[in-house]
């Protein structure tokens, strides 16, 4: 459970960062004219990705034990 | 397609700085801001000296370093070649100013209405006796419009404190089919502006028939401003005088 | 509350208050009240003391977290007591440094919003925003938080006004073997992760200058590494000074022994030597600078307007290193001289940052504009003093609500070694 959630958060985090980066950078164009993110707010995804990865460390450590 | 560019014919330029004046009046730029600036150089040693002039507007580069470094896309390049500033987007970091090798960006350090030339104190009693208390508009209403396919602000002078402004090739005039103010004013027709994709325009003729050079070609910025005659400036040139440019 | 403590709070609050006043003055009148002006025809510097201090503060944050990671990964038991001081220095200087970025913006609020909505990966500020403000700050906060849980749990056992805070921080930590194992695993991976993250993130601070062709002396691949090297030296110097202050404030001569300073002194000697090496390489290059504008910049630095700053920074760096070498050679590390060396090296770092940022704007512009000038005025100095006071208050208040030195025994790093 703990492991699943942590790995899930890390994977989600990196996926969000990648997605945020892909949507914020103008791929397939070398023109300086392409200056806006494909989707406005894409950088928020990147930041959320970082939050998710850092949260994974905290969740892994403080998630309470289930059984006992 | 349209691709705007400017030719500066240094064989015609006589250094009168009329373009600087026209630009200031058209764009209501603040004290010390010269979107169009004319260097007046002197070279050689007395008595063998020579004067030369170099008008410097924004070069509207095709590979504009300012567009590249702008963190938020406030500085943008249009399909027709104009490099403009969305003052509603600009956060005032001034990175574009440092990335630009030509020094054409001007930050609005204070409220634009405060930074205007105070040649006449419109609130003075004697002046008010003549004007009847009217304070003339210090800004051109055309500058507030949204232009181009993008429908964005273009930073035509005196918008806001804390943003970057620079030469727009007078986009508000160009879109009405007029010439930029500096070109319109130039008494010797040293400045030529137009569409280089149209082979019949005067600028295309110029580019076909004269050999041209560009400012700081080695910087790889691919400027849209071409110079005819004269020589590229070197760092050793000295300006004859310096306008009161500090505020 | 001791008198010293009260005096610290009063002075820090007064300086912060004056800084806030100066910022309010700037925000309401525009940045015209600073000495920054446009480059080119106006002959000024458009980035001034604020950006210099951004570079300095973010640089200082580098060493704290690296030292904390080194202590954990290499298990240097002697340095363990200062782990939290190091982490705290990172967090505080990052916060202050990022605040300085916002202070330098013409539109601060819009700046934060538009960075979230539009920040472009093509601009080096993407790195500052996502990796430094997001990544490094959050990771160091997580580091500080998780590293403090054990102490929080203990504090929560004693009744006090802050019991609720410590209980919240501990988040159910009880100290079972399983929990300790888990904690160690997390800290190890965080340490391993944060080192490359902070190297990449902080390199973008140097890249801000390194990718610019528009200024003499900026374009070059060394700006990133140069930033890191100076960051390491100035960060260690500040960590050493902070440790000395904490030691004095707590009167805890035993927990922070001279051994700690010996280690920090050695690290500082290594980092400062590399920084000096970079400075000398730069000096030699300046002496031979040939392109006309690079030559003019070199003249301004070596014998012109900025010469006194250049030679002062070099002298401070050499002096600081000499003081460290003497101690290393005699194997007698004393806190007084160490602090003096640290202050010298840290001041040299500020001066170096100033020389990176300012002269390339006022001198030797690519078009033949006349040379300009820039020196900060009282508004800029007051705001920066306020930033220092804010950083000191952050650290000071933390010390009041939480043990700044990890509690002794069942030392989780060393027990299993």
Overview of this protein structure:
The complex is a heterotrimer of chains A (68), B (247) and C (417). By secondary structure, chain A is mostly helical. Chain A is built from 2 helices and no strands. In chain B, the strands form 4 sheets. In chain B, strands 8-1-10-9 form a 4-stranded mixed sheet. Chain B has a 3-stranded antiparallel sheet with strand order 3-2-11, with no helix packed on it. A two-stranded antiparallel sheet of chain B has the order 4-5. In chain B, a hairpin with a 5-residue loop joins strand 4 (75-77) and strand 5 (83-85). The longest helix of chain B has 10 residues, at 18-27. The relative contact order of chain B is 0.26. Chain C has 417 residues and is mainly α. Chain C contains 15 helices and no strands. Chain C has helices at 3-29, 49-74, 83-104, 108-118, 125-147, 149-157, 163-170, 177-210, 223-250, 258-287, 292-302, 307-330, 335-357, 359-362, 378-401. In chain C, helix 3 packs antiparallel against helix 5 (125-147), helix 5 runs antiparallel to helix 8 and helix 10 (258-287) packs across helix 12. Chains in contact: A-B, A-C, B-C. The interface between B and C is large, with 60 and 50 residues.
Order of helices and strands of chain B: EHEEHEEHEHEHHEHEEE
Beta-strand residue fraction of chain B: 15-25%
The greatest inter-chain interface is formed by: B-C, 60 and 50 residues
Sheet of most strands of chain B: 4 strands, mixed
User: What is the approximate shape of chain C?
Assistant: globular
Strands of chain C, count: 0
Nearest-integer average pLDDT of chain C: 90
The main pleated sheet of chain C reads as:
none
Q: What distance separates the N and C termini of chain C?
A: 40 Å
Low-confidence stretches of chain C: 410-417
Instruction: List the helices and strands of chain C in order.
Output: HHHHHHHHHHHHHHH
Q: How many extended strands of chain B?
A: 11
Oligomeric status: heterotrimer
Question: Structural class of the helix and strand makeup of chain B?
Answer: alpha+beta
- Radius of gyration over C-alpha positions of chain B, nearest whole angstrom: 19 Å
């Amino acid at each position: 459970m703990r492991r699943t959630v942590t790995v899930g958060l890390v994977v989600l985090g990196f996926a969000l960062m990648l997605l945020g980066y892909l949507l914020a950078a103008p791929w397939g164009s070398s023109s300086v004219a392409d200056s806006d993110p494909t989707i406005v707010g894409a950088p928020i995804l990147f930041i959320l990705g970082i939050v998710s990865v850092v949260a994974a460390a905290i969740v892994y450590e403080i998630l309470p034990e289930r059984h006992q | 397609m349209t691709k705007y560019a400017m030719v500066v014919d240094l064989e015609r330029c006589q250094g009168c700085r009329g373009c600087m004046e026209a630009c200031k009046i058209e764009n209501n730029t603040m004290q010390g801001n010269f979107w169009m600036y004319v260097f007046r150089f002197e070279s050689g040693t007395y008595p063998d000296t020579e004067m030369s002039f170099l008008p410097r507007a924004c070069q509207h580069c095709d590979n504009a370093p300012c567009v590249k470094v702008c963190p938020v896309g406030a500085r943008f390049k249009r399909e027709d070649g104009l490099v403009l500033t969305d003052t509603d987007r600009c956060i005032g970091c001034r990175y574009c100013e440092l990335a630009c090798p030509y020094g054409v960006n001007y930050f609005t350090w204070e409220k634009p209405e405060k930074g205007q030339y105070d040649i006449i104190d419109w609130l003075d009693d004697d002046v008010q006796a003549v004007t009847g208390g009217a304070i003339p508009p210090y800004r051109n209403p055309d500058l507030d419009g949204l232009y181009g396919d993008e429908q964005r602000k273009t930073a035509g002078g005196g918008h806001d404190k804390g943003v970057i402004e620079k030469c727009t090739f007078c986009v508000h005039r160009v879109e009405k089919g007029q010439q930029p103010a500096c070109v319109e004013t130039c008494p010797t027709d040293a400045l030529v502006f137009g569409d280089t994709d149209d082979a019949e325009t005067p600028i295309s003729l110029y580019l076909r028939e004269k050999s041209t050079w560009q400012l700081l070609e080695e910087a790889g910025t691919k400027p849209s401003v071409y110079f005819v005659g004269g020589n590229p400036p070197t760092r050793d040139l000295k300006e004859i005088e310096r306008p009161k440019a500090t505020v | 509350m001791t008198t010293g403590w009260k005096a610290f709070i009063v002075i820090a609050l007064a300086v912060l208050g004056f800084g806030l006043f100066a910022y309010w003055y700037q925000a309401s009148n525009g940045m015209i009240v600073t000495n920054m002006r446009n480059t080119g025809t106006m002959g000024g510097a458009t980035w001034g003391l604020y950006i210099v201090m951004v570079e300095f503060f973010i640089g200082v944050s580098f060493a704290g977290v690296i030292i904390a990671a080194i202590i954990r990964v290499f298990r240097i038991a002697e340095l363990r007591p200062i782990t939290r001081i190091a982490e705290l220095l990172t967090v505080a200087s990052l916060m202050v440094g990022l605040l300085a970025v916002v202070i330098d913006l013409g539109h601060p609020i819009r700046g934060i919003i538009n960075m979230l909505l539009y920040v472009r990966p093509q601009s080096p500020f993407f790195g500052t925003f996502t990796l430094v403000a997001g990544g490094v700050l959050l990771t160091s906060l997580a580091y500080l938080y998780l590293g403090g849980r054990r102490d929080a749990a203990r504090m929560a056992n004693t009744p006090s006004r802050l019991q609720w805070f410590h209980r919240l921080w501990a988040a159910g930590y009880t100290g079972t073997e399983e929990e300790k194992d888990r904690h160690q695993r997390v800290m190890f991976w965080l340490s391993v992760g944060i080192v490359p993250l902070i190297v990449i993130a902080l390199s973008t601070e140097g890249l801000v200058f390194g990718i610019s062709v528009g200024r003499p002396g900026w374009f070059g691949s060394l700006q990133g590494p140069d930033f890191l090297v100076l960051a390491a030296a100035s960060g260690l110097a500040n960590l050493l000074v902070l440790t000395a202050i904490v030691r004095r404030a707590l009167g805890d001569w035993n927990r922070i022994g001279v051994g700690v300073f010996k280690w920090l002194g050695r690290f500082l000697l290594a980092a400062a030597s590399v920084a000096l090496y970079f400075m000398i390489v730069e000096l030699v290059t300046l002496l031979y600078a040939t392109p006309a504008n690079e030559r003019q910049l070199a003249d301004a630095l070596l014998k012109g307007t900025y010469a006194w700053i250049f030679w002062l920074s070099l002298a401070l760096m050499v002096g600081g290193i000499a003081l460290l070498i003497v101690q290393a050679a005699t194997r007698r590390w004393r806190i007084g001289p160490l602090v003096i060396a640290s202050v010298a090296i840290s001041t040299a770092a500020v001066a170096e940052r100033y020389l990176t940022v300012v002269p390339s704007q006022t001198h030797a512009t690519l078009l033949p504009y006349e040379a300009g000038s820039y020196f900060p005025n009282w508004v800029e100095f007051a705001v920066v003093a306020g930033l220092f006071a804010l950083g000191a208050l952050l650290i000071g208040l933390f010390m009041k609500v939480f043990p700044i030195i990890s509690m002794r025994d069942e030392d989780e790093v060393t027990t299993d070694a």
